[in-house]
């Protein structure tokens, strides 16, 4: 598996309590299944070779000897599955003491025994009757002719996958105040934790278990593979459901249906986890080793296959798919934006705001936010001066929507045509008006910004910026034109989310005509309207035809800035996320590649605009403020990224 992915499996066989031979065969079947499906890390439940519910039978030498023999047989059997690491639970006697352990088995060898650190002896659990906690200081124990590491803090790493370090804990260890996984991550750098468990079912416990696994993976910035006992365990007093969970940094990637005996698989993005750790300055490996024996077992290669990825990527990572969650998110964002502006208005003692209103999405959202901020301050919305500035490309539709929106929100409206002023400017700089180049377009944007700034001086107000995060990432803004304002309320809102914020307002506002105007704004093509309309008076200049689909650019932006993904990996996951669109021939490989190349080049080339952004509120985990999230030199080279794109182009055979 390339691009930093590793496939893991969490498998619960049907056990027969105290019948080690039957359990051995059940484990064998699942080992082969996992290997055939491409798994490189495979986890089985706690005490799977005997069954967790043997109780006082754990004190019987016969049972312990059979478990030991079964492990030896599985060790030899593992040689048929090269490069795969298996974790298998069993009881193990060491120097007259009995331990609950998980054996790491790979390529015909036992590589380590992880001991359970915390032995539960409360409620329905009586483990202290049979088992001892793992030793405070680990050691090597004799097993057959070998000496095997024996500790409650063992981790495993691979010669061909530097960032993959696998730690192991056992059931109760996770549920304690100070689980071993904390030390494994902070001291030994574990990026994946396996938990062999036997967690019984009680009312409400499944939800708590899932929350515990996902929150632990988030707290430790790791992947977590939880494997629990299931069918076949004794139901004398308790019942097990085989509730298996695979989580990655707070997100549950796979979860078995309880009482189903279902094996689950997931492809863990180890590169992504390591990128998150690099990004978080508060995540630092602890330089002081713990008092416990801490060891990293160096293994040879883990298997790497060219597999189809088995994971989901949301094509709209900034937008929740669930409507209830999306609506709650929209309300929260509108609050962040409006309270941010409220503070700025209070600080400057301003009772006036100035907005260039175009009838487009971004200026509409900025106006809605400003209206909320004025309401929070108890200010008259007449203090919001909306300026519509028709130019060479303004259409009747956008003009009408701008006027109607202003009136319905109770704001003041000023209409100032920029045509004569821009023509005078063309005359002054000796520019031919028939040449519709960047000078033609930017002259209009800068004229509008000058008007807004001067009106703000007249009214002792603030110019409210309207540009969004997606435009800033691409540099799709005129430097010192719409790029500049006195407070930029949309500065960290991606275009795909702007739509939903406006729609949320339209759906929840009580005035029918205002809602209708907002819906028409949503239905209008995104355009700067700097070029003349077509012969039918409709918008001729459509942004997404020129710079590419915003849904692709927002996807690239999220994964590149949030997780540092390389161009090849971005292309690979984009194909997964937009699979349906690819089926419908909306996005071919060539189209995804084209816009990924555009995004990468523009992102680097346009940093100089982001280096001097006005203030504005951060609302999500991705932002480009030079004072916060993105400290990037304006003259950084994109060379190595573009070289990788050149390699990808050759691999794809794109002309």
UniProtKB/TrEMBL annotation:
Keyword GTP-binding: no
Pfam families registered for this protein in UniProt: CN_hydrolase (PF00795), NAD_synthase (PF02540)
Record-listed deamido-NAD(+) binding positions: 442, 471, 476-479, 609
One GO term (biological process): NAD+ biosynthetic process
MF terms in GO: ATP binding; glutaminase activity; NAD+ synthase (glutamine-hydrolyzing) activity; NAD+ synthase activity
Reaction catalysed by this enzyme: deamido-NAD(+) + L-glutamine + ATP + H2O = L-glutamate + AMP + diphosphate + NAD(+) + H(+)
Organism: Lachnospira multipara
Its EC number(s): 6.3.5.1
Keyword vocabulary terms for this entry: ATP-binding, Ligase, NAD, Nucleotide-binding
Protein name per its UniProtKB record: Glutamine-dependent NAD(+) synthetase
Domain CN hydrolase: 6-270
Function: Catalyzes the ATP-dependent amidation of deamido-NAD to form NAD. Uses L-glutamine as a nitrogen source.
Record-listed ATP binding positions: 356-363, 466
Catalytic-site annotation from UniProt: 46, 116, 171
Pathway(s) per entry: Cofactor biosynthesis; NAD(+) biosynthesis; NAD(+) from deamido-NAD(+) (L-Gln route): step 1/1
Domain of life: Bacteria
Record keyword Magnesium present: no
């Amino acid at each position: 598996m390339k691009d930093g992915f590793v496939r893991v499996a969490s498998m619960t066989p049907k056990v027969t309590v105290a019948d080690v031979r039957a359990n051995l065969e059940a484990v064998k079947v699942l080992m082969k299944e996992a290997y055939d499906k491409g798994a490189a890390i495979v986890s089985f439940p706690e005490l799977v070779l005997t069954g967790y519910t043997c109780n006082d039978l754990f004190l019987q030498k016969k049972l312990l000897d059979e478990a030991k023999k079964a492990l030896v047989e599985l060790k030899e059997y593992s040689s048929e599955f090269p490069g795969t690491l298996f974790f298998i639970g069993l009881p193990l006697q060491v120097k007259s003491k009995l331990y609950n352990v998980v054996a790491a088995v790979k390529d015909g060898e036992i590589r380590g025994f992880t001991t359970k650190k915390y032995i539960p002896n409360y409620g329905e659990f009586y483990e202290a009757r049979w088992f001892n906690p793992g030793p405070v200081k680990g050691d090597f124990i004799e097993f057959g002719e070998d000496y095997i590491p024996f500790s409650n803090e063992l981790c495993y790493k691979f010669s061909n996958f530097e960032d993959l370090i696998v730690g192991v804990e056992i059931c109760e260890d996770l549920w304690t105040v100070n689980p071993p996984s904390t030390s494994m991550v902070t001291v030994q750098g574990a990026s994946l934790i396996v938990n062999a468990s036997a967690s019984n079912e009680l009312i409400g416990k499944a939800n708590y278990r899932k929350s515990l696994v996902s929150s632990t993976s988030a707290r430790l910035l790791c992947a977590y593979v939880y494997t629990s006992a299931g069918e076949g365990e004794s139901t004398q007093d308790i019942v097990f459901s085989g509730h298996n969970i695979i989580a990655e940094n707070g997100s549950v990637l796979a979860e078995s249906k309880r009482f189903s005996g279902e094996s689950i698989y997931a492809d863990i993005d180890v590169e992504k986890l390591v990128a998150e750790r690099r990004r978080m300055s508060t995540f630092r490996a602890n330089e002081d080793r713990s008092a416990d024996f801490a060891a990293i077992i160096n293994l040879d290669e883990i298997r790497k296959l060219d597999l189809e990825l088995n994971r989901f990527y949301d094509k709209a990572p900034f937008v929740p798919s669930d409507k209830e969650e999306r609506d709650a998110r929209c309300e929260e964002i509108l609050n962040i934006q409006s309270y941010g502006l409220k503070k700025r208005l209070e600080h400057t003692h301003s009772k006036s705001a100035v907005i260039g209103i175009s009838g487009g999405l971004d200026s509409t959202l900025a106006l809605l936010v400003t209206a909320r901020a004025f309401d929070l301050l108890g200010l008259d919305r007449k203090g919001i001066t909306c300026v519509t500035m028709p130019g060479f490309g303004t259409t009747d539709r956008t003009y009408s929507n701008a006027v109607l929106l202003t009136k319905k929100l109770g704001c003041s409206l000023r209409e100032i045509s920029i045509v004569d002023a821009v023509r005078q400017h063309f005359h002054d700089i000796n520019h031919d008006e028939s040449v519709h180049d960047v000078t033609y377009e930017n002259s209009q944007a800068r004229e509008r910004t000058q008007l807004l700034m001067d009106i703000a001086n007249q009214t002792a107000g603030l110019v409210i910026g309207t540009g969004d995060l997606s435009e800033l990432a691409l540099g799709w803004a005129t430097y010192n034109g719409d790029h500049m304002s006195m407070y930029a309320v949309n500065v960290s809102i991606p275009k795909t989310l702007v739509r939903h914020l406006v729609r949320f307002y339209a759906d929840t506002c009580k005035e029918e005509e205002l809602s209708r105007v907002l819906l028409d704004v949503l239905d209008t093509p995104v355009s700067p309207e700097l070029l003349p309309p077509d012969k039918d008076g409709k918008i001729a200049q459509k942004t997404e035809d020129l710079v590419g689909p915003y849904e692709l650019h927002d996807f690239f932006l999220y994964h590149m800035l949030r997780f540092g993904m390389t161009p090849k990996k971005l292309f690979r996951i984009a194909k997964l996320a937009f699979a349906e669109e690819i089926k419908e021939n909306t996005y071919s490989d060539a189209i995804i590649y084209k816009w990924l190349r555009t995004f990468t080049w523009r992102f680097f080339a346009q940093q100089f605009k982001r280096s001097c952004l006005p203030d504005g509120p951060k609302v999500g985990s991705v932002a480009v403020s030079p004072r916060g999230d993105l400290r990037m030199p304006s003259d950084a080279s994109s060379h190595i990224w573009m070289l990788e794109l050149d390699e990808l182009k050759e691999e794809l055979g794109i002309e």
